[in-house]
Amino acid sequence: xxxxxxxxxxxxxxxxxxxxxxxxxxxxxxxxxxxxxxxxxxxxxxxxxxxxxxxxxxxxxxxxxxxxxxxxxxxxxxxxxxxxxxxxxxxxxxxxxxxxxxxxxxxxxxxxxxxxxxxxx
Length: 121
Known about the structure:
It is a single chain. The protein has 1 helix and 7 strands, in the order E-E-E-E-H-E-E-E. It has 2 domains: 1-37, no CATH class; 38-121, no CATH class. It starts with a strand and ends in a 29-residue tail after the last strand. 3% of the residues lie in helices and 18% in strands. By secondary structure, it is mainly β.
């Protein structure tokens, strides 16, 4: 939220819509891709940031069928929280809860989901 003047109160503040996560006042600026605020660091190029962690991209895991992550183990057809409540629009699999290094054969890349890595910034 942002407030017009001190002291801040409900009546002189503007709020983001709580149904639109990482939008409005709860987002990084254009320079950072308008993403969710998070700790310092970045995900690998084959990963996406969700719920404070880096995961292998749903597009890779589902062969571009369910391209948006809606949970640690769930990918969705749409980038819309309401649409992802419909089970026909989602695919859930424990194998989706992995990092970008999963099955790449490189020891230095994380196999498991992980927080953003400072060395990538």
